[in-house]
Amino acid sequence: MTMIFGVPLAVFMGQLTLGLVNGAFYALLSLGLAVIFGLLKIVNFAHGAQYMLGAFAALLGFRYLGINYWLALILVPLVVGGFGMLMERFLLRRIAHLDHLYGLLLTFGLALIFEGTLVNFFGVSGARYATPEVLQGGLNLGFMFLPTYRAWVLVAALAMCLFTWFMIERTRLGAYLRAGTENSELMQAFGVNVPLLITLTYGFGVALAAFAGVLAAPLYPVSPTMGSSLLIVVFAVVVIGGMGSIMGAILTGLGMGVIEGLTKVYYPEASNTVIFLVMILVLMLRPAGLFGKEA
Amino acid sequence: MNTAEAYETNEFADSQTSEMLRVKDLHAFYGESHILHGVNFDVKRGELVTLLGRNGAGRSTTLKSIMNMVGRRTGSIVINGNETLRMKPHHIPRLGIGYCPEERGIFASLDVHENLLLPPTVRSGGMSLDEIYSMFPNLYERRKSQGTRLSGGEQQMLAMARILRTGARLLLLDEITEGLAPVIVQKLGEVLMQLKERGMTIVLVEQNFRFAAPLADRHFVMDHGQIVEEISAAQLPSRREHLNTMLGV
């Protein structure tokens, strides 16, 4: 059997795939956080809850309305993103002029309310969401077994990341967003409706989280607390990547997933902490993050 | 009244009033500090006027107040026949105003071309990209560069150029010659003359009196948040000595 540093190739590749899939989720979520932080300057602590709402919306939509996975992949981000826009318009906007810590507190409180409400109705044990039929099973690549659904998650998440990158870096609306992130007052003086831009941006960031939630539903147990544990890691990823660049958020997300996956192969005890170790290193050597702009 | 009618009425007002801007008893506040204390002045269509004064006299704040970029304002600001004191900040430029801030406001995350295309069109009849690039050939050469990589002079050209594309008819320009080499200042003077010939109305906040003097129709001198004097171009030669003492140059 082929070995890589004393580990069977199949195991190595298996963990690598797993790491990439986790990394794809980190990328999607840190991307949304970075976009929201850029324009609104608030750390969106509700991001994990909004990811969880995405998974739950897919689950409940299937259970009660018969909405299938493919439809959910489109509808859920729209619905949860719309809900996010209402949150911005009626709650976050009211405290936008205050210290940004209030935004952090408000979103944290909202996250607790969402989680608590769902725990009350559904408990914490988590439900299963069936993998769509065409994506069941896997491919035997000879050196490893690749589960089809994980391959799909990787492709879909990366496609969404690239779509987001394209929207922000290559379109007019994206130019408004980038310019608004730098100087929203001047954008206002050019006649751009900045409050509307802020609402749309928040909605978009939330929709990305919900999209990730739907992708995650067949993979992990759907439970009200599924987001909060993930979010802490995602924050670490954001700190490592820095706030400056979209591509940076994507690459850091994937990279951290891979590092985490490989640590599981070689030193499983550290797999839960390795990202935080990297974070400490980066903070010591490059406080603005790997892709962040030095202030 | 539907939008079409509103637009027509607006156009009607455009052609009827010779007054582009009238500021009356304008007070402006940043938090607790009272910056403008009853500013009064008017600008006629096609005129170029300057706001002169020492640092801190309230000239930049006057422009920002017109754009609704300060904390609180009282009094009256009529643009093109529209009272704008209660208007939202992003509606004011749509009356046909282009604002060029003192710090130029070039965006680092956008290249020159993107910076140029950024401000939305507010009126028809703006300059085309070709016209703008022929007016500022340097910008064309550097169109792929990051906005903030340009020299100070080029950044100033860019900050001006991007509001010419939007179709704005009233330009509020804040200290455009500050810190620039004489040859660039001269180029900016030529640009302002061309814009005047095109019928633009211009309010120029300026320290460089020698730059402003030959361009302007009227000068307003500000001190302590008020207009303290109005001097027409014709009166200027006899008042020069007096102005120099007032401005401390």
TrEMBL record, chain A:
Supply one GO CC term from the record. Answer: plasma membrane
Decide whether keyword Metal-binding is in the record. Answer: no
TM ranges: 20-40, 47-65, 71-92, 104-129, 149-168, 189-217, 229-254, 266-285
> Keywords in UniProt for this one?
Amino-acid transport, Cell membrane, Membrane, Transmembrane, Transmembrane helix, Transport
GO MF annotation: an example = transmembrane transporter activity
Q: Which InterPro entries match?
A: ABC_transp_permease, BCAA_transport_permease
Name its GO BP terms in alphabetical order.
Answer: amino acid transport
Give the organism's phylogenetic lineage: Bacteria, Pseudomonadati, Pseudomonadota, Gammaproteobacteria, Oceanospirillales
- Kindly provide the name given to this protein in its UniProt entry: Branched-chain amino acid ABC transporter permease
Q: Pfam families annotated for this entry?
A: BPD_transp_2
Cell location? Cell inner membrane
Q: Which organism is it from?
A: Vreelandella alkaliphila
Q: How does it sit in the membrane?
A: Multi-pass membrane protein
Keyword Membrane in record: yes
Q: Which family does it belong to?
A: Belongs to the binding-protein-dependent transport system permease family. LivHM subfamily.
UniProtKB/TrEMBL annotation, chain B:
Q: Which domain of life is it from?
A: Bacteria
Q: Do you know which SUPFAM superfamilies this protein is assigned to?
A: P-loop containing nucleoside triphosphate hydrolases
Stretches assigned to the ABC transporter domain? 21-249
Q: Is Nucleotide-binding included in the keywords of this UniProt record?
A: yes
Q: Which UniProt keywords apply?
A: Amino-acid transport, ATP-binding, Nucleotide-binding, Transport
Q: Which GO terms describe its molecular function?
A: ATP binding; ATP hydrolysis activity; branched-chain amino acid transmembrane transporter activity
Pfam family for this entry, one: ABC_tran
GO terms, biological process: L-amino acid transport
* Family to which this protein belongs: Belongs to the ABC transporter superfamily.
What is the name of this protein?
ABC transporter ATP-binding protein
- Identify the species of origin: Vreelandella alkaliphila
